[in-house]
Specification:
- The complex is a heterodimer of chains A (458) and B (326).
- Chain A has 18 helices and twelve strands.
- With 458 residues, chain A is of the alpha/beta class.
- In chain A, the strands form three sheets. In chain A, strands 1, 2, 3, 6, 11 and 12 form a six-stranded mixed β-sheet that branches.
- The termini of chain A are far apart.
- Chain B contains 13 helices and no strands.
- In chain B, helix 2 (38-65) runs antiparallel to helix 13 and helix 4 runs antiparallel to helix 10.
- The longest helix of chain B is centred in the N-terminal third of the chain and has 32 residues, at 88-119.
- The chains are: A alpha/beta (458), B mainly alpha (326).
- Chains A and B meet through helix 1, helix 12 and helix 17 of A and helix 1 and helix 12 of B.
- Chain A: Belongs to the bacterial solute-binding protein 1 family.
- Chain A: It comes from Sediminihabitans luteus.
């Protein structure tokens, strides 16, 4: 009985399958024709600047990044003039696991046309896969014109220039409350000694502990301390020693790094100085970095060293401005003349050299794009994006913190250095340095900490 | 537009599935005429193929990689395994995994069983059971975030008269109300691992309770009555009637939770990120492979995890066979 039944059923299934595959073939045909008809109407954009790129109608450039919603919208908006004027389509995709995925893609040979890479260390790994290609000469010329040697060096691997900088962030900032400072007659410090005096003054006043911090960040717990230490490396040492330390030309546990970490400990491991509004020294380890600076709003803490992007962590409606509820000042150098700035940023690395990719890569390296992107960010997300591009017009920025950051980056006295842990090998920069920094804040000695990081260097 | 695209790719997937299925059925029907066992192979073939591609090959590859250095370039023999079993940080990882696997299954099963026996036949049994079972419905990440708030710590000593500190964490607030000192639950090792384990127990006790409650209800009432007539009550009833009757279910529950604990990743990653000496093998494997770019060590950890899970699975399968054989 069952035998008799099974045959017709089998045939039926085959028929259904055959029919469906015919539909599949039809579907494949029809999905082809929507690529072209793109929007050739220039609209309000002035296309004169894009003429040199030629007609790229029907061409597509894929962009892959780690910047997800809502910060991705300004990127797409800033590509719009290029798309409208050249006819090319820019396909932007983003993924929070970008840093892991892009390596897998490059190794497997299906990399995007352009990747927005947030770390020089990762840039080197990607170039080492052999999949990355050099940009056209115009990109190099633009970087020479709009950035400086220091930024160009971070986009260079083994003497070959690969990637132009994109966005940037400034890390050498201390968040404070301008109202609290004004009420108590405190001044923004201009040297490291003044910062020390200010800290002691706040302790003497006795209303609150001066500093607050939080380093918890899931697996990356500890990174805010690595930033602290890098900032102190630039101040206790100098930018040259910093470069040697990052490149491992001097051991991680040598004299200057030891002094630098102790200088951090002077603030963060001093029970009289921390952790305003949160707890004792060890509470730094379990407080998320997002929460670390919030006690400033209650007046429970006065100082919080954190990068420019921290502005978005304050609750909506907070007045972030020079004489508002909260603002930031430049973490001072050893003297008022020293002006080292620690920061980070992204780079546009290409994996294809088709004409449309090169044209788009060139557009991204211009001051035109930087200004388009800044205006798009101001409109879509209220700012929060800057570039070290010297052609960036501060008038396109709406956020006071962005203006402060751009002023710092464009200041002729500034010596810029890129976040060191982002350049170290992954075993150190995204593992041992974080872990040992966390162990250090919960009680491990400076010597043990630096010895263990040195031992982990591959 | 995006939805249309996605629907279209779903249609493709369904079509591909139908084509493959149709092909197999067609081929099988051709062979069926010749009879014999060969037809069975046609039905097993897709499974075998997928297992080979998606399980056997990657497993062998992983074992192979575990004998190589960080970048997978040069052969280092057993060095990675040496690191796993000698380096102080890695030993802490192993210790934690052992703690998880020993503590969680027994405590969760005990709690679940006790609860199942207590509410068995009581008024409002359904509601009482639902309350314990509910955590099972929450994802591990969600549960971890909830408990992270429960454990949250603010040191009262950090406040001044003008700026007193207010607790966010429920547990610490309760401790303060009772006159104790606030505690930073997630910081001090090895106690912090137990606070993480508590989250898993909270989730798994519901699972244990459901399965065990069902098998307690399946105990023949004649047996229970006969025991009663013989004068068996209370603990003796549990020891000599209930427990032997539900033994196969207890083994399944214990081994299932044990395997879940060996592979635990979400809770550790969400609550501490493996910091403060709370990392476990699965978390360390991920960290080493993807963050520290140490493929060799990551692969070795994966192999260690695999070796640890195998005996439990073997025991589980043998128990299952034994109970079916009866």
């Amino acid at each position: 009985m069952t035998r008799m039944m099974s045959r017709p059923r089998t045939r039926g299934a085959v028929l259904v399958a055959g029919g469906l595959s015919a539909v599949l073939a039809l579907g494949a045909c029809s999905s082809d024709d929507d690529g072209d008809g793109g929007s050739a109407d220039g609209g309000s954009t002035d296309c004169a600047d894009f003429e040199s790129y030629g007609d790229l109608s029907g061409k597509t450039v894929t962009v892959y990044a780690g910047i997800v919603a809502p910060e991705d919208q300004p990127y797409m908006d800033s590509y719009k003039p290029f798309e409208d004027c050249t006819g090319a389509t820019i396909d932007y995709t983003a993924d929070k696991n970008f840093e892991q995925q892009i390596l897998v893609q490059a190794q497997a040979g299906n990399a995007p046309d352009i990747a927005i890479v947030p770390q020089p260390g990762l840039l080197q790994q990607l170039v080492a896969t052999g999949a990355a290609v050099e940009p056209p000469a115009e990109v190099g010329a633009n970087v020479d014109e709009f950035w400086g040697e220091d930024w160009k060096a971070y986009g260079t691997v083994d003497g070959t220039f690969y990637a132009a900088p994109s966005g940037a962030s400034v890390k050498s900032l201390v968040w404070y409350s301008p109202t609290q400072f004004a009420d108590n007659g405190w001044e923004v410090p201009t040297t490291l000694d003044e910062l020390q005096t200010l800290t002691d003054d706040i302790v003497a006043k006795g209303d609150n502990k001066p500093w607050c911090a939080g380093i918890s960040s899931g697996e990356a717990t500890g990174w805010p301390i690595t930033d602290w230490m890098e900032d102190m490396m630039l101040r206790v040492g100098d930018p040259d020693v910093y470069d040697q330390w990052v490149a491992h030309d001097i051991p991680f546990n040598s004299e200057v790094p030891t002094e630098a970490l102790d200088a951090v400990g002077n603030y963060l491991k001093n029970p009289d100085y921390v952790n305003g509004g949160i707890g004792d020294v060890s509470s730094i380890a379990t407080t998320t970095f997002q929460d670390g600076g919030l006690p400033i709003l209650d007046g429970a803490c006065s100082l919080h060293r954190m990068a420019s992007f921290y502005a978005s962590n304050f609750p909506e409606g907070t007045d972030v401005s020079e004489d508002g509820e909260v603002f930031a000042f430049y973490l001072p150098g050893k003297t008022a003349d020293d002006h080292p700035v620690l920061g980070a940023g992204e780079f546009n690395l290409a994996f294809a050299d088709r004409p449309e990719v090169q044209a788009f890569q060139t557009y991204l390296s211009t001051d035109l794009w930087a200004n388009n992107k800044a205006s798009a960010s101001s409109e879509a997300t209220g700012g929060g994006w800057i570039s070290a591009n010297k052609g960036l017009d501060p008038a396109n920025l709406v956020n006071p913190i962005d203006k402060l950051s751009v002023d710092l980056l464009q200041d002729p006295n500034t010596v810029f250095r890129f976040d060191g842990s982002d350049q170290m090998p992954a075993a150190v920069g995204s593992n041992a340095f974080w872990k040992q920094a966390t162990a250090w804040i919960t009680g491990q000695s400076t010597k043990d900490t630096l010895d263990k990081i040195e031992a982990s260097w591959p | 537009m995006e939805i249309a695209d996605k629907l279209l790719s779903m249609v493709y997937a369904l079509v591909a599935f139908a084509v493959v299925l149709g092909l197999i059925l067609f081929l099988a029907s051709r062979y069926e005429r010749r009879g014999g066992r060969s037809i069975a192979w046609w039905f097993i073939a897709p499974t075998l193929l997928l297992l080979a591609v998606a399980l056997v090959y990657p497993a062998l590859r992983t074992i192979w990689y575990s004998f190589f250095d960080a970048s997978g370039a040069s052969f280092v023999g057993l060095d990675n395994y040496g690191t796993v079993f000698t380096q102080s940080d890695q030993l802490v990882v192993l210790r934690n995994t052992v703690l998880w696997t020993l503590v969680t299954p027994f405590v969760a099963t005990a709690v679940g069983m006790l609860y199942a026996i207590l509410v068995d036949g009581a008024k409002g049994e359904g509601v009482a059971k639902a309350l314990v079972f509910l955590p099972m419905a929450i994802s591990l990440v969600g549960a971890s975030i909830i408990w992270k708030f429960m454990y949250d710590f603010r040191d009262p000593a950090a406040g001044t008269e003008k700026n007193p500190v207010e607790q966010i964490g429920l547990l610490n607030q309760v401790i303060l109300w009772l006159g104790g000192d606030a505690k930073n639950f997630l910081l001090d090792s090895p106690g912090n691992t137990f606070w993480l384990i508590l989250v898993m127990i909270w989730i798994q006790a519901g699972f244990a309770m459901t399965i065990l409650s069902a098998s307690i209800k399946a105990i023949p009432s004649e047996m229970v009555e006969a025991a009663r007539l013989d004068g068996v009550h209370g603990f003796k009833m549990f020891r000599f009637i209930t427990l032997p009757s539900i033994r196969p279910s207890v083994v399944v529950v214990l081994t299932t939770i044990a395997i879940a604990c060996l592979k635990v990743f979400d809770i550790v990653r969400t609550m501490t990120g493996g910091q403060f000496n709370t990392s476990v093998v699965a978390n360390e494997f991920y960290t080493q492979t993807f963050s520290a770019a140490n493929q060799g060590l990551g692969a070795a950890l994966a192999v260690v995890l695999f070796i640890l899970v195998v005996p439990i699975i073997v025991y589980n399968v043998r128990q299952l066979r034994a109970s079916e054989g009866r």
